[in-house]
Amino acid sequence: MPQEGYDATFKPQMVLEALLDSTFQSNPLPMTITSIDEGRIIAVNECFLAVTGYTREEVIGRTMIEIGLWNDHDGRAARIAELRATAMTQHMELQHRTKQGDVRDLLISAELIDWHGKRCILAVSQDITERKRAEAAVRLRERAINAVSSGILITDPHQPDNPIIYCNNGFERMTGYRAAEVLGRNCRFLQGPDTDPAALALIREHLAREQELRITLLNYRRDGTPFWNDLIISPVHDEHGNLLQFVGTQTDVTARIRAESALQQAHAEATGLTEQVQRSRDILRILFDGLGDGLMLLDHTGVILAINQAMAALLGGSAQGLVGQRWQALSHNDRKSPLQSVNSTLHDGRVRRRRERYTRQGQQRVIDIQVLPLTSRRHHVDQIIVHVVDVTEQLQLETMAAQNEQFVATGRLAMTVAHELNTPLLSIQSCLYMADKADAAARKVYLDLAQEEIQRISTILEQLLDLHRSHSDTTTQVDVNALIERVILLMSGMLAKHQVVVERALAADLPLLRINAYHLRQVLLNLILNAIDAMPTGGSLRISTAVPADGTSLLLTVADTGTGIAPDTQASIFEPFFTTKSHGSGLGLAISQKLMAHYGGEISVQSAPGAGSTFTVRLPMWQS
User: Fold this and answer.
1) Which residue has the higher pLDDT, 57 or 417?
2) Distance CA 47, CA 466 (A)
3) Strand-by-strand arrangement of the 103-115 sheet
4) Is the distance from CB of 111 to CB of 29 less than 8 angstroms?
């Protein structure tokens, strides 16, 4: 018999289910209950509806995929299998799309439960979108800090001796110290015997006053080599003005300091040379008609009205003997005269300025020529002034200045070489480390990779030797057209592979050129390889030879229909290690330019983005 007060309809299971329902609905996290097999939503709590924007009627009986919350069919099957095996899965990251279209990141935990007598899945979600964005922002800032070339240090003034608590990759690259070697130490380990004590005292003073300071001082790398460091020390305060940390930004300005020193020395030397040249010119003005430049005045028919001794000497006569003669007769007798542009101005009355090379008494000279017509009020040419300046010595002075600049470039070259070699060396180190720990099959793969990096280093060093070695003067008479045909035959396989069609425009009866055939072949190979790289989807390569009308030089032209070169890049393409390609060392054009300069020639380029590039090799015919 039931006891008095006992409710015969009371069941503990009903109480538990009612309690679970209440807890489920009041939970502050989004919760769902779904069927195991089809994943249909059986129940959702209020927080789920608030987060997703759906109503209960829109989701009950449907799947997450049907309402567009997430689309990973295979992922659900894998999670169901995991649930069946373990009865619980935790910390599963998913993305869902709300009814309004917002994409949110969720951290989901799920377990199997009995819900009103049926085996179901209870899933609890936590919105981690903002946390993931914050983590991404932190990672981005850290990558940005590590990407800058300057060194960045953070120190803690609240610890004894103000130790370093952070350094970026730029500091490691600049100083050679690893982070593990410097964390917890004061920055004074960068000081050395020649570090300025006054600069150090100034740093200590600004640290004590919590003031920002910018100063340049001499520091030392881990290997003991000195470098000039442009240092900015900035205190970091909280919103109440309390000091938190010091941030130091370091920039290696060694090249700039050396450049300034070299520039000052070069300026002093150039000033002395300029004074000597000026005094020499003053004397020449007095001795040779009061003017060292060549001057000649012609009438509109070409008769020489006046000529100074400098111009007469250029023409191989005397001033008195040349006055009254017709210029056309003189230039007809000497078709190789550097003043052939005078005939053109006599014909069309246009101003002309050009630089010419010529040989006088067995010496190469360079002159700047100006042909200036004097016109009447009716715009008829009455007279022509020919002004000639011998700039040979000036160019020699510029060459000397360039040599001084080369000393500055040596420092930059050393840094660039170190950078170019450091990457493959690190790769080799990594491969050898992995090979030491790998099985026989994997070891061969790592050793092959290391061998490839060693070959890469060898190639860079060989190109550096080509760039800096003195070239042999062994020359022969070379048929340039025949050499071009041999190089095209040599490259035919690569040209066909990259769908590059070769067009030839080779001048007939081209004179032989005295040159080292290997050097010219190397230059042509470099230009063809660059053209192939500039035409990744194929194109046309035109190779031509010619001798200009003045007969002073031989031109070899390599033109492609590739991507072209930006104007701000063209000035740098002949510099060592400069490249816009993802592969290569950036030495090919620098070596080619040096090889041609050895023979008194040069390489020039005309290009525009999207319009292809034309490289022209000019070699003086006095080599023939």
Assistant:
1) 57
2) 73
3) 41-44, 31-35, 118-127, 103-115, 88-97
4) no
Q: Which of 607, 515, 518 is nearest to 554 (CA)?
A: 515
Give the C-alpha separation, 562 to 536, whole Å: 8
Return d(Cα 580, Cα 568) in angstroms, integer.
12
In the block, residue with structure tokens 């490691």: 172
Query: Rounded to two decimals, what is the model's pTM?
Result: 0.33
Instruction: Give the three-class secondary structure for 615.
Output: strand
Residue bearing tokens 């789920």: 48
The set of residues, in sequence order, having a beta carbon less than 8 Å from that of 460 and lying 6+ positions away, is 417, 420, 421, 585, 587
CB 585 within 8 A of CB 459: yes
Question: Across 398-440, where does the E strand assignment appear?
Answer: none
The β-bridge relationship of strands 500-505 and 539-546 is parallel
Take residue 59 and report the two structure tokens written for it: 């989701």
Is residue 189 within 8 Å of 162, Cβ to Cβ?
A: no
Pairwise CA distance, residues 140 & 135, whole Å: 9
For residues 172 and 145, give the distance between their C-alpha atoms in angstroms, rounded to a whole number. Answer: 13
SS3 186: coil
Q: How far is CA 435 from the centre of its chain?
A: 33
**178-237: pLDDT as tens digits:** 989 999 999 899 999 999 999 999 999 999 999 999 999 999 999 999 999 999 999 999
Question: End-to-end distance of the chain based on CA atoms, in angstroms?
Answer: 131
Burial class of residue 255, CB neighbours in 10 A (0-12, 13-18, 19+): middle
Rounded CA-CA distance 124/462 in Å is 64
C-alpha angle 493-495-501 in degrees, rounded to nearest 5: 130
DSSP 39: -
Question: For residue 21, what are the CA distances in angstroms to 53, 78, 186, 204?
Answer: 21, 28, 61, 68
Q: Within 13 Å, how many C-alpha atoms sit on residue 392's CB side? A: 11
Going through 491-601 in order, the beta strands assigned E by DSSP cover: 500-505, 513-515, 539-546, 553-560
Q: In what order do the strands lie in the sheet with 553-560?
A: 500-505, 539-546, 553-560, 613-620, 602-607
